[in-house]
Amino acid sequence: MKSPAREWMARSEKIFSRALEAMPDTALGQPSGLPGWTGKHVVAHVHFNALALGRLARWAATGEVTPMYASVAQRAAEIADGAQWPAAKLRALAGESSAALAAALDGLDGDGWAREVVTIQGRRIRATELPWLRTRETAVHAVDLGAAFADLPKDLLLALAADVLARRAAAGELAGITSWLTGRSAQAPAIGPWL
Question: Rounded to whole angstroms, how far apart are CA atoms 144 and 126?
Fold first, then answer.
């Protein structure tokens, strides 16, 4: 499937990989740009996210229900466990799971792309959204590892900003954000977690 999201996914994976390569092993054990997580937490999360989205790709390909995670607790436990692994292992696994996800998505046919799957948040989505879900993860978490939002393509930044704004609107935060963005409030509003 050729789509902007699929192209963004490939580009953001490269940006994430470059940010990861630029970090010395010792730095991965230090706090990341994501409060409460070290670089190892971020890399473990990105690795396990690829595996989870791969399960949704399998669901889309076969029609057999294959949840992202058995539970939210399983997701948290995987990340906590992975954050204890050696940096070399995390680097290798992140690359392998990324490549496996890309291959799984490349293998979907028209019926697979049209099939509905369910995210960990319980949202029913078509498989066509899977590349965007991965793009969002790798793009933002690349920044957590030291990349800059300025490293992302402009069209991806616009799509990411629109996605974030839609989520904030659904959380009832739109008025405060709009006031701040239009210069009517001097201070950025307090907002909830990203996802």
Answer: 28
- Supply the pLDDT for residue 126: 98
CB atoms closer than 10 angstroms to residue 153: 15
Positions in the chain short of pLDDT 50 = 1
DSSP string, 107-134: T--HHHHH-EEE-TT--EEEGGGHHHHH
In angstroms and rounded to an integer, the radius of gyration of the C-alpha atoms of the chain is 17
Residue from 92, 166, 79, 153 nearest 120 by CA: 79
On the 0-12 / 13-18 / 19+ scale of CB atoms within 10 A, 190 is exposed
Using the structure block, give the residue that is written with the tokens 């954050």. 83
In the chain, the amino acid numbered 4 is P
Buried b / exposed e over 34-47, threshold 16 CB at 10 Å, is beebbbbbbbbbbb
Looking at residue 5, what is its pLDDT? Answer: 83
3-state SS assignment for residue 147: coil
CA distances from 59 to 127, 130, 140 (A): 9, 12, 26
List, in order of start, the domains of the chain with CATH numbers: 4-152 (1.20.120.450), 153-195 (no CATH)
End-to-end CA distance of the chain: 26
Tokens of 49: 């996210």
Give this prediction's pTM: 0.94
Kindly state the tokens that stand for 118.
Answer: 């369910």
